[in-house]
Design brief:
Blueprint (H helix, E strand, L loop, with lengths): L11 H12 L1 H12 L4 H14 L8 H12 L2 H15 L1
Length: 92
């Protein structure tokens, strides 16, 4: 099955995760601080992935937990990392 871009992002999951990170001011500021501590998109993408996994709710094994975990695996954390780094560089 072909994955299509969504609102300029790799896929819906990536767009949705970035939307939620940016929609809450304290989370957005935390992500900007996190981005400022990393020099490259690779290490920042690993930190963003850890953040997603560390903050995922604990669910009993079920259809819903499987779907949530599958969606998290589809997020392009590298693309989000590049976006934050680009934003920080433009402001500096």
């Amino acid at each position: 099955m072909q994955k299509l871009e969504y609102n300029g992002w790799t896929n819906y999951e990536t767009w949705n995760y970035k939307l939620w990170l940016d929609n809450d001011e304290s989370t957005y500021n935390a992500m900007r601080r996190l981005a400022s501590k990393h020099q490259d998109a690779y290490t920042l993408s690993k930190a963003l992935s850890e953040y997603a996994h560390d903050n995922a709710p604990l669910l009993e094994p079920s259809f819903y937990s499987d779907v949530m975990n599958a969606s998290i695996r589809e997020v392009d954390f590298f693309e989000i990392a590049e976006s934050y780094l680009k934003e920080i560089r433009q402001i500096a």
